[in-house]
Amino acid sequence: MKFNELYASYWQKVFRLCMGYVNNTDWAKDIAQDTFVVIWRELPKFRNEASIGTWIYRIATNQCLRQVEKEKRLPKVAVNTNIAEPELPDLEKRTSLLYQYIVELPEIERIIISLELEDVKQAEIASIVGISEANVRVKIHRIKEKLTNKFEKYEH
Amino acid sequence: MNTRIDIRELWSNKSVSAPAEKEIRAKAEKLTKSIRNKTLLGLGALLITIIFILYVWFSTDFQMLSTRIGITVIIFGIGLGVVHFIKTVFLLIENTAVDNSTYIKYMMKLKKQQDFMQTKLMNSYFASLSVGLLLYMYEPTVRMTLVAKLITYTVTFAWIGFNWFYLRPKIVKKQRAKMNAAIESLQGISTDLIKT
Question: ipTM exceeding 0.90?
């Protein structure tokens, strides 16, 4: 597997995953970059024990978890919550809201829902996070409910 | 609204242009180089320390054994510092492609190990510097006048006291606070993982 191919096909996915974790574009870009630095260094050692996707997502999510060391760097919740909102097109506004709602979840839930929204299979999510598939299913259901409630509250 | 479809659509709406691939390669190469340089620097410092110990033992003409022991203990303290430095460099190289649950356990273990190493090693470092200094000073002060002796010992004890009672607790406290905050967050995440 060539690095440039992986980089091309996984950059946006990894970036979104990091955005779901920190909801700050620069910070997420940094984590995504660090993830690809690790991938570049470790790729020669990759032995197909897991699928390449699982392997990449494990590295990316672990890089996110490592942010506990730097958590004081930025406030947890996005900065743009209370600013007099510029007139964003509806889709963009909702997108920002979604990422903001996700970052308000506990760390593991942020990771799980981001992977789910990235269309990663539940069995694979279980193997990335290290919990049972049944547990993943329950958690996804609950997280989606939480997100739906937040959107509903916002709209009423 | 149909949240399932909406959320997915909203989610993939976010994107950012990827940095040039050569930027990633350059960063990776820089990291490899920096780890190698730090290791070499640490090993070099350790080697110089050992050579210095041997040189002091065989070349200087001190009359008392206490002086030699003093010098050795001081250098041993410096050696401890170097070992600590090398260990921290190696802690950075880790297996990062395990599942989250294992990774969190690994990080927690690492943090506790780091905490132990930093505090214990810091105490040994300061203790050997203080003891070494006192032993070393004995010989030069034997022939001093009483006033000179008093001044020398007051200054030395003040310096040791400053290190031991002010500097050391301050460094340890700072490291502890940082470490505890990280361990606490990790424990929180770990609890969330178990919950169904």
Answer: no
